[in-house]
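Hey all, sorry for the wall of text incoming. These are the two entities for the joint prediction.
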Amino acid sequence: MAHFTTVAERFTAIYYSTFDRNRSELFPLYRDRSMLTWENTQHLGARAIIEKLSNLPFTTVQHKITTQDAQPSSESINSIIVLVTGLLVVDGSENPLQFSQVFHLIPEGESFWVFNDVFRLNYG
Amino acid sequence: MAHFTTVAERFTAIYYSTFDRNRSELFPLYRDRSMLTWENTQHLGARAIIEKLSNLPFTTVQHKITTQDAQPSSESINSIIVLVTGLLVVDGSENPLQFSQVFHLIPEGESFWVFNDVFRLNYG
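and here's what came out:
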């Protein structure tokens, strides 16, 4: 499964660095059929997803990945499921928030787009 | 997405109650192609997965679900991705462990089996 792991690591590196720099630049990673569940809200399609992400109530944010695990999700296409756990530093807070996020990546040419995206904060 | 949510809730209720009672009884939920990532180890196929789960180093365990979110994972079959976050009470410990787990459920007849299963403890 090395290939899937490599793809997943490249994806999350790009995804979170983009997220932390300028969330609106994530637009090309989603499609009209993409789904985002962010805490208790659901969003369908790249436009709605980017609107949601852009309007999250913080100015600066930094993702620190603790673990990431990938598996192939299909026997017919090279799609990949990635589970990420980590810490979210919001507006420079000294108390980072724990999060879990799963991505379902669909291959398209040489790259991948996000079909499923579920984000949850983990409260103790 | 109500249908997916209902399926996911039924699945996790059965899965965790079975896990907490007798882990070997989870066997019918996996197939030869099923994958489990449990912390840093990977296991392929129902037999290997049940062997791993059965040999986990605790006697009693209780899962307490905090959140669960489901999305359809395909446009051609009724497969479902479920992200669960919750607490794991091991051997009656007063300090439950936080966990995140993602399941990828594949329909077969009237039921579903687990193609992908990724489990991670979340350390603060």
